[in-house]
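For the sake of transparency, this paper describes our internal protein records without simplification. The remainder of this section carries one protein's record, kept here as part of the documentation:
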Amino acid sequence: MNRATQLSHFADQDPSNPSLLCDLLDELLSADLVDDAVTRIRLAPQELRRLPAVKFREARCAMLRGESAEVVEILQPLIENMPDVPAGVTHDVAYAQLVLGQPDKALATLGRADSAGEDGVAIGLLKARILHRLQQFDAALDALASLSGGARQAEIHGVRALVLLDAGDTTRASSEAEKALALDPQQHEAALVRGTVALWDQQTQVSTETFEHVLTDHPRSGRALLGLGQCLMLRGDIPAAHGLLERASVEIPDHIGTWHALAWCQLIQGDLSGAKRSFDRAFAIDRTFGETHGGFALVFALRGERAQAEESIKRATRLDPKGRSALYARSVLLLDDGDTEAAVEVVQSALLTTRGPAVGVSIDFLYRLRDIVRPRS
């Protein structure tokens, strides 16, 4: 007879005992028997179901089932009404709010937490992830600075690596990622950094294998879907890349780079309307991002809408003087003027002065794309 069976027997004998119910629920959850735990809660007497300890475990079941809204619904009243809220309750509410795309609310919720030790590490890691989502990179690094995680040390290195990567410090990001992976070869954020840096360095095979490995354990990892989609774009498998990038846009709809990658995939397929919609989604996230305006410029240029293209090029160049998409748009206008030599120089400049996964853009490609999408007179 295993422990869950024993506890189940005792709980049946004493159904009004909250300690027995909680012990049983903990055992079921540790054994990944979430549905059994949910059934036990539903069959428990109402006076037990109203207890904070049982509510907390009910919310944990909802979290494990991916029901983030229910987590908040169950636990928010506890935070508002309990004088001393356990750190675990605050953590789970904030985590659920982050999953629901409410990072500001999540950060405010964590402001209620007062914890130390292992709870402090969990709170600090979640705070860093929220600040990272809000692109407050320095604040995220500050939240990680005082953490020493023991069993969670790999996670601390991994989260720091991803923050540093998105802050533009690739060298330190790679160093932190390798520290994390030395401790835990499965560490999610560290693997994302390794795969992304390999992608940027055109090590497509390494990058592909890394992202595929991540998706084995985390099939809904938006950043891994994005990275693998970009790898497939570089390899020329555009339909498969398109499918992955659409999935990535669902998982991380507030990640501007995902919409840019999807837009380029659509451009390669000659789908200017789709690319414009993707750039619109990127614009809704950040109106001051130069590459988005460069994307608009390229769409306008390919359509033959010169005035709109020139205006968008000016705006994009002002925001990001080395932006790749604006340079491609300018090259299309030069092609329209018959100045092929200057257009070639602009494309070469775009490839030399920017970093990241170049999608095989050439003058021949721009010629073909312009001929496919431009309305005939």
